[in-house]
């Protein structure tokens, strides 16, 4: 089939292959089955849901061919960034590479925070590292919560006072 106007023909072709139930839409489950990390593990559910929600303009829980095409461009940009920070070309981001990535992205985060992220998102091993899917997830969540923080930090001082419910509202509206 021909690609709709404004959709890359390769993206349209891949959309047809990924749309297993032929509904004309890609669900989280179908997206998860289509995306793999460098170690051949499928993308995790949380990252797929975040990305579907980002490109789901109708809030229906799935994306059409236009959303899928935009999502592929988005993933390609993140993959290029990931490969730039994966200095040893291992296919995953180590602790030191994660620290460097945050610094180069303009985040001033402690080694303890990076260690916390590794503990939460890396596969359990003697040398934990982050796959592409988790890198995308971490960066999306970091950007989103940073944006929410900046909305409250109007003086750009790096500190805010908020109620517990304001904090929860920030988290729920940005992360779920």
From TrEMBL:
Xref: SMART domains: EFh
Ranges annotated as spanning the membrane: none
Taxonomic superkingdom: Eukaryota
GO annotation, biological process: COPII vesicle coating
Gene Ontology terms for molecular function: calcium ion binding; calcium-dependent protein binding
UniProt cross-references to InterPro entries, sorted A to Z: EF-hand-dom_pair (IPR011992), EF_Hand_1_Ca_BS (IPR018247), EF_hand_dom (IPR002048), Peflin/Sorcin_CaBP (IPR051426)
The keyword Endoplasmic reticulum belongs to this UniProt entry's keyword annotation: yes
Gene3D superfamilies, sorted: EF-hand (1.10.238.10)
GO cellular component terms, A-Z: endoplasmic reticulum; ER to Golgi transport vesicle membrane
Compartments reported by the entry: Cytoplasmic vesicle, COPII-coated vesicle membrane; Endoplasmic reticulum
Domain EF-hand residues, every copy: 6-41, 73-108
Pfam families in the record: EF-hand_6, EF-hand_7
Keywords tagged on the record: Calcium, Cytoplasm, Cytoplasmic vesicle, Endoplasmic reticulum, Membrane, Metal-binding, Repeat
Record's bilayer topology term: Peripheral membrane protein
Protein name per its UniProtKB record: Peflin
